[in-house]
Design brief:
306 residues, 11 helices, 3-stranded antiparallel β-sheet, alpha/beta, globular, Rossmann fold
Chain lengths: 306, 306
């Protein structure tokens, strides 16, 4: 078993990855995870100190410190940590940035060595979809057709289709706890993954990880690298407006106007919703404020619990 | 472990069923399946004499000898055999026979004792869909929208949604081969399940089982019990016409006219298709003839490889 400090093994093929998983899980020493799980986690049933456990972090690569938090939590909670790196064509619409989405596997693997991953699953599109685009897919229903789903038709169906497949590929072939890690920045995706896991009876615990922000408050995103310096400054209107909304300094209408008034920023939506149903509610503690906006040609999202 | 001749254990809850599966698989003696698998099966990689293996037969109950063939094959090939009995509301359309579909669990369990099942999973609708109808579902795409899917909109989406969930629930929690058994009478369903298993990377071998016919040639179906004596005689036009088509005695037009001319029978479709794509082809050896018709108010299907 590679140590957290060593380079992770990169697998390109599904069969190779599954064999490596079985090998690592079988070879995992009978010990608690690298760091003890907290009493709170155990009492919530979110972690068990079994002899082997597997954490999966699904990513599209172009890794940053936000992914680092996901992988480090997986490292704390599991004996084996796998990270998938796959830019999934199904979740990009026509005219979106599938072609130019950054592909930086070499530096991703270097980062993953630091973050503590054991295995990297980096399949080609042909490996994941050998017959072309899949005929049978996951559909996300009403929860996937509002907000980001309204702006990006088919996006969540594509995202759930690949997450379901990645979970099936990665599910431990030997008795072991199985956890998958998703960032809270993609709040609607996280909600839909939770629903899918429940609706499909997938044998995995979904573990949410809080948003990581740069010092200036901008939520980390692989797409931030599209921004030039002026756009980067303009983008700060998103977290600042969310904070003002949470502090009660602005109502929703004023908050929307503030974002739209920012140079080079075009608001897609700013809403306050019930975090379980995505139904709009009056701003109140526990409600979730969600924002999406184009900064130049780059679409950014952010959110904050009020 | 119950012997094939004993009464199977009936589980109503998902957790209870999964615990029973783990128990039976762990307790399964290290032996080859009850009957040796044939050399042909082994050479096709369809059966392995591992220490434990699990066969699942998904059904809607109202069992008959056609199901018997499925369960007996599962019994031959696996150390543990589970049968699910669940009338899945998602795959019935408005005005279809969900309410009156026969529910005969007591006699089903008696039959399953004879067929050799170890476990029966018979959940309620509330157990399978605790939050009401699932938000996230499986969608069957083009292959699910033609033929029976055109006549029954949403039927295959509903069927795949429950099959996916049943497979996830039943997937062995310990290392074991996993096989699921489907009848060839539901040819389009079988094709779609195969596609789903490939597209979703589900860890299961799909095993097809040939159609079982009564002495008069009618394909066994739970819905045959809806037929009165005269309808039953009329229904024989379906297998007879398929055989005449296969023998080259009728062309497709004449075959359709023959079915439509039968008293009380209303043809839905009679087509000859490529069995992998369901695209219509000229009748030729290896092509698949598919028929669907209403006999009275009962919708029946049948098929035959030419």
């Amino acid at each position: 078993m590679s140590t957290p400090a060593g380079a992770p093994r990169v697998c390109r093929g599904i069969d190779e990855f599954r064999a490596a998983l079985a090998d690592r899980l079988g070879a995992a020493p009978e010990r608690a995870p690298q760091e003890q799980t907290s009493r709170q986690q155990v009492s919530q049933g979110q972690a068990s100190p079994g002899p082997a456990s597997l954490g999966l972090v699904p990513t599209m690569g172009a890794l940053h410190e936000g992914h680092g938090h996901l992988v480090r939590l997986a490292r704390q909670e599991n004996t084996v940590v796998a990270v998938s790196v796959f830019v999934n064509p199904l979740q990009f619409g026509p005219g979106e940035d599938f072609e130019r989405y950054p592909r930086t596997l070499e530096s991703d693997v270097e980062l993953l060595a630091r973050f503590g991953a054991d295995l990297v699953f980096a399949p080609s599109v042909a490996e994941m979809y050998p017959g072309g685009e899949p005929l049978v897919r996951v559909t996300s229903g009403r929860l996937g057709s509002v907000l980001d789903g309204a702006s990006r038709p088919g996006h969540f169906d594509g995202a759930l289709t690949v997450v379901n497949k990645l979970l099936n590929i990665t599910a431990p072939p030997v008795p072991a706890a199985f956890r998958a890690y998703f960032g809270e920045k993609d709040a609607q995706q996280l909600l839909l993954v939770r629903r899918m896991v429940a609706d499909f009876a997938l044998p995995v615990d979904v573990r949410p990880v809080p948003i990581v922000r740069d010092d200036d408050g901008l939520a980390l995103s692989s797409r931030n690298r599209y921004l030039d310096a002026a756009q980067r400054r303009s983008a700060l209107v998103l977290p600042r407006t969310l904070r003002a909304l949470a502090a009660g300094e602005l109502d929703l209408g004023a908050a929307r106007r503030r974002i739209d008034a920012e140079d080079g920023v075009r608001l897609d939506h700013l809403v306050v919703v019930d975090p379980r149903t995505l139904v709009p509610v009056e701003p109140a503690p526990g409600a979730l404020a969600l924002v999406a906006a184009h900064v130049g040609s780059t679409r950014l999202i952010d959110n904050l619990v009020l």
